[in-house]
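I have a small job for you when you get a moment. Can you supply me with one protein entry, sequence and fold together? It will help me judge whether the discrete encoding reads sensibly. Write everything out right here, beneath this request:
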Amino acid sequence: MIKVTEATATAGALERLSDEGVSIWLDDLSRSRIESGNLAALVEKSNVVGVTTNPSIFQAAIGSGEGYEEQLADLAVRGVTVDEAVRMTTTADVRAAADILRPVYDRTGGRDGRVSIEVDPRLAHNTVATVAEAKQLAWLVDRPNVMIKIPATKAGLPAITEVIGLGISVNVTLIFSLERYREVMAAYLAGLEKAAAKGLDLSVIHSVASFFVSRVDAEIDKRLTVLGTDEALALKGRAALANARLAYEAYEEVFGSVDGSTRAASARWTALAAAQANPQRPLWASTGVKDPAYKDTLYVDELVAPGTVNTMPQATLEATADHGGITGDTVTGGYGEARADLAAVEALGISYDEVVQQLEDEGVAKFESAWQDLLNAVTKSLDSKGVETK
């Protein structure tokens, strides 16, 4: 857990990052973090204005048992299913975190102060079930600042449209490819159009698109290392930043530049903006470096752009507060170089399309595995209370 020290309280780099238009969200949540006051302290002193969760985060938190004993004992006495026990514990944490962040939500008009919770990853390829679960999660948490996370699988795209069309805010997760990101933005616009047709207030619907970063370098760097040439090794650590920067360029093509000075918005978005719709902000996810040879704030320092979110694991937040190099916008001037870097990777025989599809498949599988581990841990806890689980 992050200790809010004098260094993090001063948080010069975090303040500069916020001043550049980047919203800092914490990629972690646990009951001990909530009950100890740590989350509230991070909001107050370290510029944290949102929280993201995923199955792996909950597996680590609830699997440890810390802070969950009483609730799990009560659930065991009631004889609930394991799936219900998991949902009751996770939504309780998200509800409590949403209450802590509610002042931020109110202050920013709903832009920040958000807490995300993901649909069951086993539903990633089932559109109808994903929509039903998103509705259920929104109802269970029952806070206006919740965001429901839906993976950007092929089945997830129409689910995004349906859920946004119901007026539920969505965090689209597991985006790796530029093509899929464009499909995600189109799904969001379609959802807003459905909501508008129903007469819903578009101004209260928000969305972020979680574009994963470090995993791209991890996979492409591995392949570059196998090639082993000077040309290949010189490209290590460049693909993920290039991919993310080109995602921001795609964002500008749809929603326009944040200040409107360099790129006009699409006609489709302009019509929705006139109805008080909110742009779907890019969110940089998986920002902890995987290669210890890289600076631990690489995916923060080099992805500074207005109107974005950077969700950081605790180690990255601490590192940024301590020695982050925030020097202004490091994205919008680099589109040409980014295209050249990805083209150079392709020229070496590394297929971009193959890599991003592999990463999507692995991402879904990893979350499914973490969810199963969580179910197993909760099953063990309920069984230890002497009540047979269903």
Summary: Residues 6-381 form a domain with the TIM Barrel fold (CATH 3.20.20.70).
